[in-house]
Amino acid sequence: MAQYFEVHPENPQVRLLKQAAALLEKGGVLAVPTDSSYALVCHLDDKAAADNLRRIRGVDDKHHLTLLCRDLSELSQYARVDNKQFRLIKSVTPGAYTFILEASKEVPRRVSHPSRKTIGLRVPDHKTLQALLEQHGGPLLATTLIAIGETEPLNDAHDIRDRYEHQVSGVMDAGACALEPTTVVDLTGGEPEVIREGRGSLSALGL
Questions:
Q1: Residue 25 — φ and ψ, nearest 5°?
Q2: Domains of the chain (ranges plus CATH)?
Q3: What are the start-end ranges of the H helices in 39-118?
């Protein structure tokens, strides 16, 4: 049975954040709000948790998972970023953008894209999620929470609990979040390539 955390959206309760972080340390998968939509998250270094996250989401190892980072310095630990890429990312961070970058050696090979050795990274602009990342003390592996067979991300924490109470370890409820996924930009080529246009504005990127 999933634990249900009702978190204040502006001042997340530390007690609840600690409980949620403890579930992650034990290998749990959590449903959490972000600045785009709800996401499934787990510990980066836990293979069983990552496999479970993929199973809940219904995707294989070819699906790009995302690392949610606290800030740009943490992001640069897990990806190879040149000056031009860094300036572009900095201009819209934190925000509803996911950047596909070449993974550094800090990223376990099992969670990077198997053929391209790339990873999606982003710094979310959401108080509850940022507070959870701070409590956890590192990045979290994530994927947008879209039910198998559906195309739209889930947004209601009560609905998520009803659907996934026997599959996830916890659900964080900080109120409704956007129903639009992040804008995904591939920075591994010569020029930025928009993979998916979402909540993040392309004009802010100069695209």
A1: -65, -30
A2: 3-205 (3.90.870.10)
A3: 47-57, 72-78, 83-91
- Structure-token match 């591939």, residue found: 186
**Cβ pair 135, 111 in contact under 8 A:** no
Q: Give dist(CA 181, CA 95) in Å, integer.
A: 11
* DSSP-assigned beta bridge partners for residue 12: none
The one-letter amino acid at 109: R
Q: What is the identity of the amino acid at 177?
A: C
Backbone phi, psi, residue 79, to 5°: -145, 155
Query: Where does 123-197 show beta strands of DSSP type E?
Result: 140-144, 170-173, 183-186, 193-196
Contact 189, 47 (CB under 8 A): no
pLDDT in tens, 146-193: 999 998 888 899 999 999 999 999 999 998 887 888 999 999 987 899
Which has the closest alpha carbon to 34: 110, 103, 123? Answer: 123
